[in-house]
C-alpha cells in the first residue's frame, strides 16, 4: 500500500493543485471518485490490463465507460495516467485527493460507534464539541456497535477516542495483568 501511495501522490497533488487553481475542487472530487469506482470493476481492470490495446485506446475506453463524467481537464488527466500506465492507481489517487481537499476545506469525517443509537440532539452536541476540539468542521457518521456494551468510540482520521465500556474493561485487564 505504501508503494501505491508513493506512486499516486504526485498525480493526486497535480490534480488537486489544478482543481484548486480552477476553483473546481468539488467537480474534480466527483470525477476522481467516479473514476476510482470504475477502475475497480473487474471488467475494466481486464480492459486496462489488455496488451492488445494501446495506452491511447485504454484511455479512450475508460473515458467512454465513464460517459459525461469528465471535463476536458479530467479527460487529459486520464490520458496522462494511461500513457504512464497508472490508471490502476485511480482509487489511491482519489483517496489522496480527498485527504488534501479535507485539509484545504478544514473538514474531517468522524465515525462514531455507540452501543445504542444516538438521538439527534446528542449527535449534534458531539459534533459541536468535536468541531471545537479538532478546530475543523466535522462530518459525523454514526452507527451502532453492540459489542461496545456501553459508551462511545470516536474515530477522526488518526485520532481515536475510546470511551466504551469494552475499552475500559480492556485497560483494566491490562493493568491487572501487568
From TrEMBL:
Principal location listed in the UniProt entry: membrane
* The UniProt record lists the keyword Transferase: no
Membrane topology for this entry?
Peripheral membrane protein
Provide the protein's localization.
Cell membrane; Membrane
Q: Which UniProt keywords apply?
A: ATP synthesis, Cell membrane, CF(1), Hydrogen ion transport, Ion transport, Membrane, Transport
Q: Provide a Gene Ontology MF annotation, just one.
A: proton-transporting ATP synthase activity, rotational mechanism
Q: Give the matching InterPro entries.
A: ATP_synth_OSCP/delta_N_sf (IPR026015), ATPase_OSCP/d_CS (IPR020781), ATPase_OSCP/dsu (IPR000711)
Protein known as: ATP synthase subunit delta
Q: Which organism is it from?
A: Zhongshania antarctica
Q: Please name the gene that encodes this protein.
A: atpH
